[in-house]
């Protein structure tokens, strides 16, 4: 008679243990899913900040930040995505909000200054950079410091900041181009040409540096194209730039010859060069 009672007790105990095991199992599975979600979310954030369409990234981070406003990674992602989307005024506002969060870093404040510069607020950008400890020495910080010194015509400081920035990056082509343009605006054409050449050696796809180099040579009345990598379309565009530089210097016949070369060189119809040549020839015939 005791066996049924014993069996019932065992079954009850088994059910109880099974119930506890189910609860523990559910909790374990839930924690596992949370861990997976965090990993997936981190990967998605990275994708949105690199390869996603900038405006889609803005929408994603704006939604995420509205749901979890305390998450600084969402606020940072939103600000960075706005910069990628070239929505600089909104980006500056987003970085301003970000820098008021307790976890904000000195890099966030440098990025805030960058966004302010891009939105045209140079005075506030300078104030933000001045508030960052001088011990925070990064490429982006010195790049911005150089640009601000340039705008204030503090040439010695600008050169110093550009030189430091170049030493802090493995891809200095862009900052070398900026430094060269600074020299070009000061009338130091030889130094500008040298810096543009160095920028091109670092990145031979940087057409802006190639065009600036031609401007520097033209300012010295050197109307031959530099020996640099260029495709046929780039060659035509650089000849056009050289032609306009020659005309500006008063060397009109040289300019006309360069325009004809540009038109003949371009693989397609080069409307801008054709218009420039027609305008020159019309002025000559009317004169």
UniProtKB/TrEMBL annotation:
PROSITE patterns: PROKAR_LIPOPROTEIN. InterPro entries: TPR-like_helical_dom_sf, TPR_rpt. Pfam families: TPR_16, TPR_6. It comes from the Bacteria. This is Tetratricopeptide repeat protein. It comes from Sulfitobacter sabulilitoris.
């Amino acid at each position: 008679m005791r066996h049924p009672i014993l069996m019932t007790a065992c079954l009850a105990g088994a059910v109880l243990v099974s119930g506890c095991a189910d609860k523990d199992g559910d909790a374990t599975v839930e924690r596992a899913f949370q861990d997976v979600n965090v990993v997936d979310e981190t990967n998605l954030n990275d994708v949105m900040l690199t390869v996603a369409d900038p405006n889609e990234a803005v929408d994603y981070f704006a939604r995420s930040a509205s749901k979890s406003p305390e998450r600084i990674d969402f606020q940072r992602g939103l600000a960075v995505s706005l910069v990628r989307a070239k929505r600089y005024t909104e980006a500056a506002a987003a970085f301003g909000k970000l820098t008021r969060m307790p976890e904000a870093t000195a890099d966030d404040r440098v990025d805030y200054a960058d966004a302010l510069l891009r939105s045209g607020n140079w005075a506030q950008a300078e104030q933000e950079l001045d508030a960052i400890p001088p011990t925070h020495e990064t490429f982006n910080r010195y790049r911005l410091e150089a640009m601000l010194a340039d705008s204030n015509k503090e040439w010695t400081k600008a050169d110093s900041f550009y030189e430091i920035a170049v030493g802090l990056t493995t891809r200095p082509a862009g900052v070398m181009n900026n430094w060269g343009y600074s020299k070009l605006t000061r009338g130091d054409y030889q130094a500008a040409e040298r810096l543009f050449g160095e920028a091109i050696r670092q990145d031979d796809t940087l057409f802006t540096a190639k065009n600036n180099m031609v401007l520097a040579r033209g300012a010295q009345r050197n109307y031959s194209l530099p020996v640099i990598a260029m495709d046929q379309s780039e060659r035509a565009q650089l000849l056009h730039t050289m032609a306009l530089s020659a005309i500006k210097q008063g060397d009109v016949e040289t300019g006309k010859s360069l325009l004809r070369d540009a038109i003949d060189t371009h693989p397609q119809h080069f409307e801008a060069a054709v218009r420039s040549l027609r305008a020159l020839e019309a002025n000559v015939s009317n004169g």
